[in-house]
Amino acid sequence: MKELRIKDMRWFLEDEGLSDVLEQLPEVSDTRRHYVTVPYKDGKLFIKTFVEKGALGALRNRTIPRGRKEYETGKRLASIAIRTPGCLGYGVGRNRSCVIQDWIDGEGFVHVFFRHGYRERLIPALAELLKRLKEKGVCHNDLHLDNVLVSGDELYLIDLHKTKMKGAFGDNDELSNLTHALTMIYEDLSEKEKAHFFELYGNKAIQKGVEGEIERLRKKWIENKKRRAFQETSKIVRRGERLYIAGMEGRGRGGAFVETIKSDRKVKVERYSDHIRKIYRGRRRLERAWKNHIVLLYLNAAIIPRAYYVKLPSLFSDGFIAMEDLGSQGRELDRHLDGFYDGLDIGRRRRFIDAFSAFMKRVIAQGIMHNDMKGCNIFVVNNDQFFFLDVEDMAFGDIDEAVLLRMFVQLNNTIPKRIAVSDRLRFFARLTGSLNIDRKRVLKKVVEESLKGEIVYEGLTGLKEEKW
Known about the structure:
The chain is of the alpha+beta class. The protein folds into 4 domains: 101 residues, 2-Layer Sandwich (Phosphorylase Kinase, domain 1), CATH 3.30.200; 119 residues, Transferase(Phosphotransferase) domain 1 (Transferase(Phosphotransferase), domain 1); 90 residues, Phosphorylase Kinase, domain 1; 138 residues, Aminoglycoside 3'-phosphotransferase, Chain: A, domain 2. It has 14 helices and 25 strands. The strands form 7 sheets. Strands 12-13-17-18-16-15-14 form a 7-stranded antiparallel sheet, covered by helices on one side. A 6-stranded antiparallel sheet has the order 1-2-5-6-4-3, with helices on both faces. Strands 7-9-10 form a 3-stranded antiparallel sheet. The chain is globular, with a radius of gyration of 25 Å.
């Protein structure tokens, strides 16, 4: 390797020609992670910078710089035929280190799995990767599926600075790899797919242990993401009094005020030309909303409007969250049904119900619930895409019969009365078909509780109240 000094950093390069690229790099900000993609020869380079903070960070950077660790680990994994981005060098400077890798033209496993499908080849590929890691004694220690890239038919392991190569690969190491990898998709797998995965992996006996560990890890993981929601991470960037979702730093910054959509004692919702701004009267609701935004971002759930940033409250102003404006693309469920339902034939009604129930099944499978499941808190786009509003009222946990009962009653009493009973029953059947509940008992309670109240919803012409 060639050792060079460029911009106050010592670089160790396999290709001396990289020095020209490094000379052109912009100054790195103080964010904990910094990523740059640059063209090089016939392809691209990916340069990741680790910024260390505090005394412990400075000590780590002097002893085991994370850039060097990722470079060395990538080299070792490549030598045992585990695919990772090609490592071309690393750099070490004051309180920071870098790794230079080949750019992989791919997408995160979770994104491909939920957005594009390909389950019939992704599940076997993941089983094979995990099997090989076990055979080679590799414990990644952060193997969530955002750290697995899909490129063509191949899986690439990334974010390697915590990875350990072990001579003795124990049961805890195996559980760690499996649990971290499966947590984000496991509840979306059918029982047949789960069994097939463990059969391909070669250890069917470990399934129950993995499932118990997934439940424990999921709860811990969600609380950890909430705890760090107001700190800089790989997904959160601080700019003054604002915390941006990484990649959204240019969004929602200069738009002109258009209108006030809603204003009450808890929140005010304003439309600007380039974003929606939700202003919270109290700090607690703002914090709860932003924490939920961050958890759902890490889950790749794509069930809420994308947040751009949170502006923290000050002595003289309330805090707010700026997010994408879905207004021109659709309407809230209650208004959508009020204006859309009567013009549908039976086939189109069924397709709409099936799409909505599939959305709700995916949400429930991920342990996500909305504590205010009114029709006005669900947004409909193109008749087959759905998003939750009022993110501060969302929660994570076990979905039991009591939760389902509350959800069905709230929804039942906040959509137009003329929605046919047969369509309501179809939604109930589609949603609960695979759940381990007493469906008859729950349905009876839904009917009883719904009839105790009135139907109240926002129609196209304003608030409407109807009796059963």
